[in-house]
Amino acid sequence: MVSEESPLLVATAHEAIYDRFAPHQKRWIVFLVSFRRDVDEHWSVFIQVTFVPSIPQIAKDLDLTDAVVSLTFSLSLLANAVGALVWATYSSFYGRRLIYLWGMPFVCVASCGVALSTSFYGLLFWRFVQTFGCAGGTTLGVGVIGDIYKLEERGTVIGAFYAVTLVGFAVAPFLGGAATQYWSWRSLNYCLGAWGVLEILLIYLSFPETSHPGTLGINKVTRRRWIHITWVNPLSSLWLLRSPNLLAVMFASALALISSYVLLVPMAYTIGIRYGITNDAIIGACFLPNGLGSFTGSLVAGRLSDIVVRRWREKRRGVWCPEDRLRATWIGGLIMAPLSVGASGLITTYIGGPIGLGLNILCLYVNGVGVDSVLSPISSYNVDVVHSRSAEATAAHVASRWLIISAATALIIPSIQYIGVAWTNIITAVLVLIGQGIIFLTIRYGDCMRASVDVGFSTMEIN
User: Fold this and answer.
1) Which of 7, 17, 122, 398 is most buried, judged by most C-beta within 10 A?
2) Highest mean pLDDT among 43-47, 132-136, 396-400
3) CA-CA distances (angstroms) from residue 75 to 48, 268, 322?
């Protein structure tokens, strides 16, 4: 059990475990789990955001309404939640490397299934499988970083991890929109499947196992078959959320991330219609500012969170409090994210022409910076407090967050149709502020919250 009075960062023999890989090997590992699209926030987001500009064309091809097709987007978020739990839980048993290799075939096969879909139900099924296959990326990626980097280093690395993966978030909508406009959404999914095959080869040839020696469940099996398949309850990770700390930051991150989806999901129906943009490639290009903002926010917030941890530790004369890292979320959560989403709704409603479009683009960039200034420190915090189960803690966090967001995204377009874009965005801004209030209470009462329910918090020997 940890507390503010416990000096958790004394040097121990456990720290030697982080020297298993040379610095250049660590950089290569981080490169693989982020840039090579074997992570949720790159591979899965690529699938999701390339899908958004394609909604009108898919609706036309399958003779469906845009609102019905957008439900497949919400279903893909649900698949993220389910997949995150499954892959993270099994990675604690079989290891990170093997689970990466198991996930990608789902993506390859399902991408071809999406491309071949001729009915709405077929599209729903294959979209679910497609997203499920790559859904473990965030949880595994963060877990890998927790495996190889020490406490005061991992905030910066996790920030870089998110930033590199968000390059795909910035570029994918434009590529997806261009492919939809000048090619077809079916051909795009064939390409995603082919790319998945290349990913499998890269991971197989150059990605080592990073889990700490002796910690995997398979290592404790005395009688092992050549192909040993064991049932592991994927829902067990959710039990970590009985901790008030982990539950609180999950809600806060979900409320912050909803603001991005409120801006991005209905893009073709808000900015597109308001400013007369009908070209799918141009609609996709409007995602670029938000992706670039997310890239910036992840890099800055990750490094800032490490700085905050060190400075507050110095103020306490060597004593570390896990919630100090959450102080790095203030600017993004209190100012940038809520202000940008609220302003965008008002601008779209009342300001037309190039000025209105330009201001909306600025809001998209600011929102990206603000939201990821909240998400990056929270991701590092989850690893800090339950380091021995970092992938599972991240999975519980991500799965629950996606469940909330999947429900919220299903309401976005109906809300805009019923109460208008301005009020929809203003309500979202209020939700972001509520989330930041939850973070304030977690920082203020974090020690008492951890004392109330012990889920195996990190100690100085294992962090």
Assistant:
1) 398
2) 396-400
3) 11, 19, 34
More confident call, 182 vs 308: 308
Do 387 and 146 touch, CB atoms closer than 8 A? yes
Tokens matching residue 429: 């801004």
Cβ count near 222 (within 10 Å): 4
Name the more confident of 250 and 229: 250
How sure is the predictor about 13, in pLDDT bands with cuts at 50, 70 and 90?
A: low
Length of the chain: 463
Interatomic CA distance for residues 372 and 374, integer angstroms: 5
Region 289-310: mean pLDDT is 89
Q: Residue 325 CA to chain centroid, in angstroms?
A: 18
**pLDDT interval class at 9 (50, 70, 90):** very low
Q: Taking the CA of residue 13 as centre, how many other CA atoms within 13 Å lie in the half-sphere pointing to its CB?
A: 0
> Does position 168 have pLDDT exceeding 90, yes or no?
no
Q: What is the dihedral of CA 414, 420, 422, 423, to 10 degrees?
A: -70
- State in Å, rounded, how far the first CA of the chain is from the last one: 12
Residue 297: which residues within 8 A CB-CB, separation 6 or more? Answer: 332, 368, 369, 370, 371, 372, 373, 376
Q: Distance (Å, rounded) from C-alpha 198 to C-alpha 115? A: 19
Which residue intervals of 65-184 are DSSP H helices? 66-94, 96-116, 120-134, 137-148, 151-182
Give me the phi and psi of 223, to 5 degrees please.
-115, 100
H or E stretch at 361: helix 353-385
Q: What are phi and psi of 39, to 5 degrees?
A: -135, 150
Cα Rg of the chain, angstroms: 21
Distances, alpha carbon 340 to alpha carbons 162, 268, 297, 460, in Å: 21, 19, 14, 40
Q: Residues 337-357: pLDDT tens digits?
A: 999 999 999 999 999 889 999
**How far is Cα 169 from Cα 291, in angstroms, rounded to an integer?**
5
Other CB atoms within 10 A of residue 368 CB: 32
**If pLDDT is split at 50, 70 and 90, which confidence band does 58 have?**
low
